[in-house]
Amino acid sequence: MQTIYLRDDETAFAGRCELCLMTQPTLYAPAGDTRVVGTLGRSVDLGFRTCRRGHRILIKRVRVMEPV
Fold first, then answer.
1. Start-to-end C-alpha separation, the chain
2. How far, in Å, CA of 52 to CA of 29, rounded?
3. Cα Rg for the chain, rounded, in angstroms?
4. Residue 11 and which of 5, 31, 38, 48 are 20 to 30 A apart at CA?
5. Burial bucket for residue 34 (CB in 10 Å: 0-12, 13-18, 19+)
6. Rounded to two decimals, what is the model's pTM?
7. Residue 61's beta-bridge partner residues?
């Protein structure tokens, strides 16, 4: 599954759908914009997004540990 990782202080994300980049264009799914953008609330650790062609992308928050 495709994954976009967010640091714990970020809420907005942007990426590209890797499956769209690898898939050949067809009549019903032409080549085009592969960008995936959105937001994830600070209190949410996991989310999903679907690209324009229907591929699911996991959005996962990564907690950065402070050095001791």
1. 34
2. 9
3. 14
4. 31
5. middle
6. 0.79
7. 6
